[in-house]
Specification:
The protein has 202 residues and is mainly α. It contains twelve helices and no strands.
């Protein structure tokens, strides 16, 4: 299992101290208990959360960031400028679109069910599944994902919900990323963290 000093290398001392005990306990209890599984899981959550610096999705994008992140939605700089630095309205625009797969049904859902936890659980549908499986009321209180225990637990829930150990066990890190990201965005950083973790005595 990763040591506190090793985790601090990726997160800094303050955040490492905050999450270390919860992280190692929950990983051990939930089957993320071999080197390949631990390295794949840790590499992904450390990338997704920026080393545990992101608790909930910020969404305070400038115009250029909007165009880069959602090129299919923001085609012109004027269109992006109209929403720049407006997290609530950005969430409504990108997560509240009709026909998306997030299960959002109210105008407020885009923002209230924005990405949370180290895996970035997003959308009413996913928060509802998380609530059902954990018996914690994330639907009426999505902010509960911000507590240290629920923060870590939500990432482990996602990992096991989609049985990502099956890819970690064979070293198929590409497929781990594919299932988490829906593509390969950030793949170089994910791979770099994975490779570094593999060199450690975990």
């Amino acid at each position: 299992m990763i040591t506190k000093l090793q985790l601090n290398h990726f997160t800094g001392t303050v955040l490492g101290e905050k999450y270390y005990s919860i992280l190692v306990s929950e990983m051990a209890k939930n089957g993320i208990n071999t080197k390949l599984r631990e390295c794949a899981f840790l590499a992904q959550i450390l990338h997704e959360s920026g080393g545990f610096r992101s608790i909930r999705e910020n969404l305070n994008y400038d115009a250029e960031g909007l165009m880069k992140t959602w090129p299919s939605l923001f085609h012109t700089i004027d269109q992006a400028n109209a929403l720049a630095h407006q997290p609530y309205n950005i969430a409504t625009a990108v997560y509240g679109r009709e026909g998306n797969k997030l299960g959002n049904i109210k105008p407020t859902d885009g923002y209230f069910f924005r990405g949370g936890g180290p895996m970035g659980i997003t959308g009413r549908a996913n928060y509802t599944l998380l609530a059902h499986d954990t018996m914690i009321d994330f639907v009426n209180h999505p902010e509960l994902i911000e507590t240290p225990e629920n923060y870590i637990m939500s990432a482990i829930w996602f990992w096991n919900k989609f049985n990502l150990n099956q890819y970690a066990d064979t070293g198929n890190f590409f497929q781990v990323t594919q299932h988490i990201n829906g593509g390969q965005i950030g793949a170089p950083d994910r791979q770099e963290k994975y490779n570094e973790l593999l060199t450690m005595d975990i």
